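Hey forum,

I'm writing up a methods section and want to include a predicted complex as supplementary material. The small molecule is S-adenosylmethionine. I've pasted the protein sequence and the SMILES. Can someone with a working setup run it? I'll credit the forum in the acknowledgements.
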Amino acid sequence: MNIQQALQQASQKLAESSPSAVLDAQVLLTFVLQCNSAHLLAWPEKNLNHEQQSLYQQLLQQRQQGIPIAYLTGLREFWSLNFSVNHSTLIPRPETETLVEYILSKFNNEDKLSVLDLGTGSGAIAIAIAYERPDWIIYASDNSAEALEVARQNSDIHQTHNVTFINSNWFEKIEQGDLDIIVSNPPYIAQADLHLQQGDVRFEPQSALSSGEIGMDDIEHICLHAKAFLKADGCLVIEHGYDQKKLVASCFHKNGYSEIEHKQDMSGHTRITAGKKY
Ligand SMILES: C[S@@+](CC[C@H](N)C(=O)[O-])C[C@H]1O[C@@H](n2cnc3c(N)ncnc32)[C@H](O)[C@@H]1O
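Reply by user p_vandermeer:
Happy to help. Structure tokens for the complex are below, copy them as they are.
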């Protein structure tokens, strides 16, 4: 079987189970052949060897069962950096880049700021910021030791030596006070939300996704406790659901944050809320 035949066969096989069958087929084949997509276009007649064919079929079968591409390849790009991911980490989303962008543009010229990324997962937010601001002091925490292990590996790969990882249930083990910025993309989906039973999300850790009856339990907790760890004028920045703007704004108000502002993601949904302590 050659590259062209492999792609055709795979696209057909995945057509029913995946909304992105052609792209999935390409990504999996580049993974199996350890090449880039230009190679697939340049060498359509090149044959796969027996091992490559069998690995490809195995991955296609898993994809047909719904397993996300990122878990099959173990990789997802975020902020133009490759992040390792596995079943213990959320797969970083493009929307979350809005949050990184917001912080980098708002705190452009200052040096040596301290930042805590709560619920770091694969480390995407903390490492992207650390990569862009090597002089800043970054802390990244999660209550999943397995996720932190992946985050540490990602930090090593990108040589972000300014990140310290902390295993903590939200603020429990955080000793750093006087932080300039606390950032979080916490779980924020309502526990009965049907999306949790659909698509790629089914395979991601539920503890990374759902948060109480209306998805606000962790955001409420973070808003309430962040103040004790921020310096005066320190900033809390939270990612939330597209329909949670009002709830999150009222939570920021209730806890006395000022200069509250919102940012939209690339699809025009309000996904980021930020505010200053006092
Ligand atoms: C939505 S994921 C975000 C992961 C990563 N920051 C990203 O944007 O890709 C939420 C993260 O919060 C972590 N988390 C959930 N409950 C937590 C808790 N009580 N304490 C600390 N981290 C928690 C999960 O393990 C998960 O990694």
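Some notes you might quote in the supplement: The longest strand covers residues 230-239. The domain at 87-277 is CATH 3.40.50.150 (Rossmann fold).
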